[in-house]
Amino acid sequence: MKLAINVDHVATVRQARKAKYPDPVAAAILAELGGAQGIVVHLREDRRHIQDRDVEILRQVVKTHLNLEMAMTEEMISIALRIKPDRCTLVPEKREELTTEGGLDVVSQEERVRSVVERLHGGGIEVSLFIDPDIAQVEAAHRVGSDVVELHTGIFAEAVDPQDKKAAFEALEKAARYARSLGLKVHAGHGLDYSNVLEVKKIKEIEELSIGHAVVARAVLVGMEQAVRDMIRLIEGS
Ligand SMILES: CC(=O)[C@@H](O)[C@H](O)COP(=O)(O)O
Ligand SMILES: NCC(=O)COP(=O)(O)O
């Protein structure tokens, strides 16, 4: 199972002060050095974290593969066709949400999704659809010609009640198996952390996980000691 790292929230820290650091590009390079097999960014319409400049530079420096998550807007399609990430993941987007709240509803807008998939394919870009683990959505993703489905693990990750957790896990398993049987590549992500990933990794059909927030949050802490030592060295040095 491959791991792709989403560096959105490195940019969240930068944008909190509209500063130049920390740079998600530097984080992506370090993530690759740490073994990440892909880099993910979500260029949101409101540009709350990742900026256009980040995607442009990432395109040049990422050595593994660059996955651009985006809404199906004309603006985003033209950015994708110009920058040409290795993969575009189409996601639903709401301005007021804290993070993505659910999968893309492919069933209700099949024609539109098909046309966006075709345009991105025309630019030589692999396409992934971020969908709920739902059989009807998997079928629709297959019908519109997607290469990959990324199964939304958020419901599973957030479930507290053991019965809900079990049901959410079974839905992921079933959707993953079905998608694989249709010839789709199966990825998964959202809300995965250092604990719940141990369950998700049991689903053998999943080829790649996208994890962001938990890894960036941990990096802030495990990297803190070194950051303070570096500052002390500067203060104490002559
Ligand atoms: C599609 C998905 O599950 C996430 O990558 C999400 O799009 C991340 O968005 P934020 O980083 O803004 O929470
Ligand atoms: N597509 C999921 C992703 O890129 C990362 O989601 P999260 O780990 O930040 O919740």
Can you give a write-up of this model?
The chain has one domain (2-236): Aldolase class I (TIM Barrel, Alpha-Beta Barrel), CATH 3.20.20. The protein is built from 11 helices and 8 strands. It has helices at 8-16, 24-33, 52-61, 74-83, 110-122, 135-143, 154-158, 162-181, 197-200, 213-222, 224-236; strands at 2-6, 38-42, 66-70, 87-90, 126-131, 148-152, 185-189, 208-211. Strands 1-2-3-4-5-6-7-8 form an 8-stranded parallel β-barrel, surrounded by 7 helices. The longest helix has 20 residues, at 162-181. The model has no long low-confidence stretch (mean pLDDT 95). It is α/β, with parallel strands linked by helices. The structure holds 1-deoxy-D-xylulose-5-phosphate and ligand LD2JLWAY. Ligand LD2JLWAY is lined by residues 6, 40, 150, 189-192, 210-214.
* CATH fold-level topology: TIM Barrel
Quick one: how many beta strands?
A: 8
Tell me the radius of gyration: 18 Å
Mean pLDDT: 95
The CATH H-level superfamily is Aldolase class I
The profile of the biggest β sheet is: 8 strands, parallel, barrel
Order of helices and strands: EHHEHEHEHEHEHHEHEHH
Q: Which ligands appear in the coordinates?
A: 1-deoxy-D-xylulose-5-phosphate, the ligand NCC(=O)COP(=O)(O)O
Estimate the strand proportion. 15-25%
Overall number of domains = 1
Which of globular, elongated, flat, extended, rod-shaped describes the shape? globular
Please give the count of helices. 11
What is the name of the CATH class? Alpha Beta
Q: What is the annotated CATH architecture?
A: Alpha-Beta Barrel
Give the end-to-end Cα distance, rounded to a whole number of Å.
Answer: 48 Å
Strand order in the largest sheet: 1-2-3-4-5-6-7-8
Binding site for 1-deoxy-D-xylulose 5-phosphate: 8-9, 44, 49, 99
Pathway: Cofactor biosynthesis; pyridoxine 5'-phosphate biosynthesis; pyridoxine 5'-phosphate from D-erythrose 4-phosphate: step 5/5
Organism: Thermodesulforhabdus norvegica
Pfam family, one: PdxJ
